[in-house]
Amino acid sequence: MSRRTPRVVVTNDDGPPTDLSGHSPFVYPFACALAEQLGWDVKVVVPSSQRSWVGKSYAITQVTTGRYFYPTGPNGTDGEQCELPRPLKEGEKTEWVLLDGTPATCANIAIHSLYPPGSIDLVISGPNFGRNTSTAFALSSGTIGAAMAASLSHIPAIALSWGLMEGYKPPPQSFIQGAVDVSCQIASKLWDLGWEQADSEHRVDVYSVNVPLMPSIISKGGPTVYWTEMAKTKYQRLFKSTAKIPAPVVKDGGPAAVPADKSSVEQGKEQEAAEGQASGAEALRMVDSHYQAPLRFVFAPDIGPLVNPSPASLQEGTDNHALMHGAISVTPIQAAFASADFPRGKAIETDGLKWRL
C-alpha cells in the first residue's frame, strides 16, 4: 500500500515573504512549488519577523501570539492578515500562520498545537537566505535549529539553505527557479529514502541541504549533488562596539572632581593597577574606549573566512567543499552534540571513569 500524500510544515528563520531586496524572498516560491510540483499538503508556519542566528532557542517567558496570513501577488508580499482564520478569497492559494516566536517555537507549535497530534509527517525549514555550511554557521542557524526542534519531536526534518555566492545582492530569477526545482526534487527523493536506519547509532534526524545560487544550478546537465559531512569551522568577533571616543569634558570642581590632568582612561588604569598589586597579579584591562562611553554593541560579524574560505582550507567530502565548487551538499546529521574522547592527564586522577577529587 502506498503512503498517503505527505503533510508538510514549512518554517524558516527569515520570516514572511519579501521581494528580492529583502531578507525572505525564497519561502513563498518554494512553498508554492512543494504543493504544485509535488502535490504535497503544505502548511506554512513562520516567524512574524526575521529571527536569524538564534539557533534552536525558545523564548520561554513571553506569550507567543500569532496571526493568519493570506499571501498574494507574485512574491507573496501582498495579502491580508487576520486574528482568526477565514475561507480563502479569490486569488488566494493558501493560509499561512505568522507566530511571534523563534523558528524552533514555530516548529514545535505547528507539530503539537496548531494541527492534530500525529498529523505532521515532515518539517522543512527554509529555504534560508544564505548558506548554512560548516559547524560555525550550522550551530548558530535558526533554520537548522527549527529542523532540530522538529526531530526532537520525532518528526523527520530537512534544513534547506540557498547560498548567496556573490555577496548579498539579488540573484537572477533563473537561479531562484532552478533552486526551487532542484530543492523539490531533493526533498522528494529524501522523503522516499526516509530517515530511519537499522542501526540507531547511525540514524538520521535532519538532512541539511545547501544549494549554491550560481550558474551551475541551471547548467545544461543539471546541478551536481553530493552526500557530504559538515566541515568544522569557527568564528571570531560577532559584535562590534558602537563607542566613539568623546571630546574631553571639563567638569566642575569640588571634593570628588577628577584632576584636570587625569582622563577617565587614566583613572581606570590607576584603579586596575592598584587592584592588581593588591591581588599579586597583573590586572586584566578593558579596551580604553569603554571607560569613556556606555557599553553598546551591535551585531557585526567578522565572518569573511567563513564566507570566502581559502582553497587550502576546503576538505573534499565536506559541505563547504561541495558548495564552493558549485555543487549541492546533502549532509545527514543527528540532533545531538558530538561526544569527545575523555582527556588523559595528571591534573585529574581517575579510577576508570570515576574521578578522584
TrEMBL record:
A GO molecular-function descriptor: hydrolase activity
SUPFAM superfamilies hit by this protein: SurE-like (SSF64167)
Residue span(s) of domain Survival protein SurE-like phosphatase/nucleotidase: 8-236
GO CC aspect terms: P-body
Source species, domain of life: Eukaryota
NCBIfam families per UniProt: surE
Name of the protein: BZ3500_MvSof-1268-A1-R1_Chr1-3g01966 protein
